[in-house]
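Structure in, sequence out. Go:
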């Protein structure tokens, strides 16, 4: 059995087509799972470092899926032949790194109807507004329980550019009613509290007040009936 985590399974559940590009594959568990389960016919799995690709090679051999998965040493999409790719998954990296990969010139093919599945480990509040301001709409977002609670974002290019409010940057399209959303946002709120306390200590009271009001808005978002 391929040791696929709930986080990666959630990413797999949001894929739509059968030709997947996995950017930053590391061990290549997701590509191996996608081929073994029949969810994908072809996968391009990339990594910016050779070490992870060597480990990926071992995984493909172990699970007899070498034929349908192409391993590519590439920074983002730099060395990727994008012809025919239906879906792109970028998981297990910081939100800023994911944004930089999506903003690179070689990522322009994403505008041709590619389904994006993004799983930022941190800084999702930087990735979401970038998507919105660059014509990508988030269609779905799920909080998933793994070693922590993570968010998985599904998005595609629509061309609509709409700036997000601060609360939208932090809450995205997560479901208000999902208990895991509360747990995910509790972590976000804790980090904001720490930041506000630091700002207050250093005398930046107005910035600390801004974070305080954002925290209130996140609470209101989580409890819409109490407004
Ligand atoms: C923590 S691993 C995540 C592996 C897998 N995607 C997952 O979610 O379990 C992140 C991987 O992304 C790779 N990576 C980081 N920046 C990258 C980039 N610009 N292009 C391709 N791979 C990158 C790293 O080398 C590392 O192997």
């Amino acid at each position: 059995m391929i040791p696929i985590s709930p986080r990666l399974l959630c990413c797999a559940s949001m894929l739509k087509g059968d030709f997947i590009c996995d950017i930053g594959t590391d061990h290549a568990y997701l590509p191996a799972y996608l081929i073994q389960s029949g969810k994908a016919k072809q996968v391009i799995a990339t990594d910016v470092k050779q070490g992870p690709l060597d480990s990926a090679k071992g995984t493909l051999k172990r699970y007899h899926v070498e034929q349908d998965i192409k391993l590519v040493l590439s920074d983002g999409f730099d060395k990727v032949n994008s012809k025919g790719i239906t879906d792109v998954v970028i998981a297990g990296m910081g939100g800023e790194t994911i944004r930089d990969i999506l903003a690179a010139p070689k990522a322009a093919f994403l505008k041709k109807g590619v389904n994006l599945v993004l799983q930022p480990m941190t800084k999702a509040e930087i990735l979401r507004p970038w998507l919105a301001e660059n014509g990508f709409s988030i269609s779905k977002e799920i909080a998933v329980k793994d070693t922590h609670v993570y968010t998985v974002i599904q998005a595609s290019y629509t061309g609509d550019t709409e700036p997000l409010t601060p609360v939208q940057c932090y809450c995205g399209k997560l479901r208000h009613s999902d208990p895991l959303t509360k747990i995910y946002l509790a972590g976000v709120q804790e980090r904001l509290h720490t930041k506000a306390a630091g700002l207050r200590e250093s005398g930046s009271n107005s910035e600390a007040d801004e974070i305080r009001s954002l925290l209130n808005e996140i609470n209101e978002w989580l409890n819409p009936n109490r407004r």
